């Protein structure tokens, strides 16, 4: 039942702003029946009354209770979209925005022109759109164009418990926008929806809302879930433990889907393979198997064709597309199987000692980078006579509800990106989940009947989990956010009503970076004045231009500088490529087994060969990994950007499509800033000239200036750990060029990097070489040409007379020469 935890006093004395109309929806009988089973349906009236009476309402309910799919329908039926104004729903994950809009359109029997979605790279919004699902980042961009969000009648912030950075900011902004709209006589409803119960950050935060909003609790779990803990202390081999648990469930327990939570793509695939081997399908009644046989046949045919055909003709004026030696047949087959994403098991295999006579298991992987059509499979009923088993990453925790799950196997771990607050160095680590997450995961069983959750850890370990995971905003660099906020004329970011404010040192680091990039006014003053002024700098003209580009400040600066020497199309491409994750599919993928190590090795060899080709010669080569990105995009576009080309060359097809979209979007953005530029996206653009490549390196230096690294000279070598190492402005430890970089062996004296990741060492990725004489001209605020600072920092080294890592002086030996690009 719905309980109003904190009955809010009547918020306004005005008559309630309930729309008068009722808009009928024509649903199919099956949909209607499924809806009626959702707990939230029984609470429609209470929820709508609360929304009608209050400008801001918080709705809490277990995942799967129907919040995301039903609340927009309630509002629609109650007439909220019947006079100008639409319903906007934000999701922290793209997967959710797309799939929820499709589901709601289907339930309401309305077209995608009316129930639509918008995510960063794509959307199907039209003039007729009345319900719009979008990512939180998309809505934040809209606030910049129209601060009052006048086109919306209602904003729903969904999955607020995830505490994504943009969600937090939106809630802060909306806490101010809602009263402003009220004052204008154009009231806006704000609905915050959250899965778990930690809503005090929103409701008990007096800086946020003047009046505490009512909290509606939807009691949702329809069926009890029995939680089973492991008795023993957790094992390291949780993946193997998952396998054993699934086998046991499948052999011994009654029918019902199984959902396994693992931490990453490689683990998911390797468990899928093991399970498919253990419980194979009967060939005849298995569509998936047929599909895989068919795919295998097609693949073999295409390989024969490839071998027979002459090599593609290369136009030397375009990016090199050089076919690579195909190697021996077997290796190639395995390789392509791997690239195909392997959710169809091509191993027609000879059984396995673990084979069993139980029902076949219909095993499906689920993770965020999986192609959408493969993701959608989990919503369809499994083939008759099989049991569904979904092996998923954290995606399945709250964003998507998979029907028919009765058993959950929870490894208790999650892979998370960790950032160093100051330097922004990030690394992925597998850590324990929070108690809230564990409970979420358990809740996924028992959606349709009583369920069971098997936790592969003991209850004592569970008690040690943190209660909730910390909000994203407290754990990552915030410079992109600060720039966005300054563009909204929020100068004193420190006073912004964050639900949970980021740490002061992260705010300071962000402001410092923005000053170094030359955006807030204060650039002209000396370092001290800058520091004094930095916490409340207004935005500068360059900063405003930067904020109009839908990319992080470093990249925005690169774009802003690229009108010179016709560099814009290249910068747009480089920036697009740098923003998209995992361009080169296999490089970072850890091998799941020894056998796979061999496979991956073969693929990597081939990719390395291609990368060398894409990196070009001479001055082009010095652009390093960024030239490789340019070359890869160029080569891919030149070949028509086909899945086949990507497969053969180790590129991730989805990433290439995203780059293409982002190039289009950035080109439009640039054209709207520089109205005379008249740019268009030319997929077959020529490689940059030698001179352009040099300018591009300078532009990259100007943008990524704080990511400058200097090679440690022989006389500075303190000990072996500094061999081939670089010093950076931000870290005291040695960093190295990542082995996947084309500059790995060349070791230029000065480089800029896109990011540092921590694995066995600190590695720089996305590396370009720069010339020392450019540094004073392009990055004056990073240079120090006099004596060491008056108060030597701890890293001052009296033997060599050098300041080792203090930022202003790390490059102090550079000479004044050749100012080459006007900044
Ligand atoms: P909540 O937002 O409270 O977590 P949802 O509104 O997402 O709940 O889900 C309500 C129900 O709709 C769930 O039972 C879920 O299985 C079902 N559902 C959601 N999306 C789909 C889909 N694409 N296909 C079939 N069922 C779906
Ligand atoms: Mg939801």
UniProtKB/TrEMBL annotation:
Biased composition (Basic and acidic residues): 284-297
Domain Helicase C-terminal, residue spans: 245-489
UniProt entry keywords in alphabetical sequence: ATP-binding, Helicase, Hydrolase, Nucleotide-binding
GO terms of biological process kind: brain development; maturation of SSU-rRNA from tricistronic rRNA transcript (SSU-rRNA, 5.8S rRNA, LSU-rRNA); positive regulation of male gonad development; ribosome assembly
GO molecular function: ATP binding; helicase activity; hydrolase activity; U3 snoRNA binding
GO CC term, one of those recorded: nuclear membrane
Domain of life: Eukaryota
Keyword Zinc attached: no
Amino acid composition bias (Basic residues), ranges on this chain: 298-308
UniProt region (Disordered), positions on chain: 283-308, 328-353
Domain Helicase ATP-binding: 48-215
The protein's name: Activating signal cointegrator 1 complex subunit 3
Lineage: Eukaryota, Metazoa, Chordata, Craniata, Vertebrata
Interval of the full protein contained in this chain: 176 to 998 of 1102
């Amino acid at each position: 039942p719905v309980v109003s935890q904190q009955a809010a006093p009547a918020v306004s004395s005005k008559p309630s702003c309930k729309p008068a109309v009722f808009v009928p929806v024509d649903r199919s009988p099956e949909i209607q029946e499924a809806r009626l089973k959702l707990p939230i349906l029984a609470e429609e009236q209470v929820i709508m009354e609360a929304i009608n009476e209050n400008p801001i309402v918080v709705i809490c309910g277990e995942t799967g209770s129907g919040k995301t799919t039903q609340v927009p329908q309630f509002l629609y039926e109650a007439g909220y979209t019947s006079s100008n104004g639409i319903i906007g729903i934000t999701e922290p994950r793209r997967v959710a925005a797309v799939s929820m809009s499709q589901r709601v359109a289907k339930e309401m029997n309305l077209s995608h022109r009316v129930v639509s979605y918008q995510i960063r790279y794509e959307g199907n919004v039209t003039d007729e759109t009345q319900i719009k699902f979008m990512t939180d980042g998309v809505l934040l961009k809209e606030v910049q164009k129209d601060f009052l969000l006048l086109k919306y009648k209602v904003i729903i912030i969904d999955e607020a418990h995830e505490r994504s950075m943009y969600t937090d900011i939106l809630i802060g902004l909306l806490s101010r926008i809602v009263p402003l709209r009220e004052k204008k006589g154009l009231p806006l409803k704000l609905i915050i929806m959250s899965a778990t119960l930690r809503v005090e950050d929103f409701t008990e935060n007096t800086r946020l809302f003047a009046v505490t909003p009512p909290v509606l609790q939807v009691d949702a779990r329809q069926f009890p879930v029995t939680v089973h803990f492991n008795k023993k202390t957790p094992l390291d081999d949780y993946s193997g433990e998952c396998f054993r648990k699934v086998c046991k469930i499948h052999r011994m327990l009654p029918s019902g889907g199984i959902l396994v939570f693992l931490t990453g793509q490689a683990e998911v695939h390797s468990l899928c393979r093991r399970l498919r081997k253990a419980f194979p399908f009967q060939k005849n009644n298995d569509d998936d198997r047929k599909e895989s046989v068919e795919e295998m046949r097609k693949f073999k045919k295409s390989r024969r064709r490839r071998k027979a055909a002459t090599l593609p003709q290369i136009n030397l004026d375009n990016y090199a597309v050089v076919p690579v030696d195909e190697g021996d047949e077997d290796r190639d087959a395995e390789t392509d199987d791997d690239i195909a994403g392997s959710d169809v098991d091509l191993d027609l295999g000879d059984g396995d000692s673990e084979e069993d006579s139980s029902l076949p298991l219909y095993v499906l992987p689920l993770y965020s980078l999986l192609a959408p059509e493969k993701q959608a499979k989990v919503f369809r009923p499994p083939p008759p006579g099989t049991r569904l088993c979904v092996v998923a990453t954290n995606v399945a925790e709250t964003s998507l509800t998979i029907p028919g799950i009765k058993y959950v196997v929870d490894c208790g771990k999650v892979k998370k990106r960790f950032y160093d607050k100051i330097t922004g160095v990030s690394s992925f680590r597998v850590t324990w989940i929070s108690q809230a997450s564990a409970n979420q995961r358990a809740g996924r069983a028992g959606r349709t009947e009583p369920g069971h959750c098997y936790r592969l850890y003991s209850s004592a370990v569970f008690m040690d989990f943190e209660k909730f995971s910390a909000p994203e905003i407290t754990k990552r660099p915030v410079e992109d956010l600060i720039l966005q906020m300054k563009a909204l004329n929020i100068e004193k970011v420190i006073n912004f009503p964050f639900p949970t404010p980021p740490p002061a040192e992260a705010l300071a680091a962000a402001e410092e970076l923005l000053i170094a990039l030359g955006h807030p006014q204060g650039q002209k003053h000396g370092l001290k004045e800058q520091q004094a002024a930095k916490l409340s700098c207004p935005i500068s003209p360059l900063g405003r231009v930067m904020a109009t580009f839908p990319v992080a400040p470093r990249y925005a600066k690169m774009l802003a500088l690229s009108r010179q020497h016709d560099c814009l199309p290249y910068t747009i491409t480089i920036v697009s490529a740098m923003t998209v994750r995992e361009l080169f599919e296999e490089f970072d993928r850890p091998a799941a087994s020894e056998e796979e190590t061999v496979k991956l090795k073969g693929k990597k060899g081939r990719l390395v060969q291609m990368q060398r080709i894409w990196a070009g010669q001479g001055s082009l080569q010095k652009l390093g990994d960024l030239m490789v990105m340019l070359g890869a995009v160029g080569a891919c576009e030149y070949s028509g950007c086909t899945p086949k080309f990507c497969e053969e060359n180790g590129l991730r097809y989805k990433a290439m499509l995203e780059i293409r979209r982002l190039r289009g979007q950035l080109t439009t953005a640039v054209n709207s800033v520089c109205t005379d530029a008249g740019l268009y996206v030319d997929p077959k653009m020529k490689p940059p000239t030698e001179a352009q490549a040099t300018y591009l390196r300078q532009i990259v230096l100007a943008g990524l200036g704080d990511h400058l690294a200097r090679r440690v000279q022989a006389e500075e070598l303190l000990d072996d750990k500094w061999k081939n190492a670089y010093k950076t402005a931000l870290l005291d430890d040695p960093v190295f060029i990542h082995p996947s970089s084309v500059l790995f062996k060349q070791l230029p004296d000065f480089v800029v990097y896109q990011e540092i990741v921590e694995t066995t060492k600190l590695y720089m990725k996305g590396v370009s070489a720069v010339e020392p004489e450019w540094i004073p001209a392009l990055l004056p605020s990073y240079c120090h040409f006099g004596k060491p600072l008056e108060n030597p920092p701890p890293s001052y080294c009296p033997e060599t007379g050098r300041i080792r890592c203090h930022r202003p002086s790390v490059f102090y030996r550079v000479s004044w020469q050749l100012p080459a690009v006007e900044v």
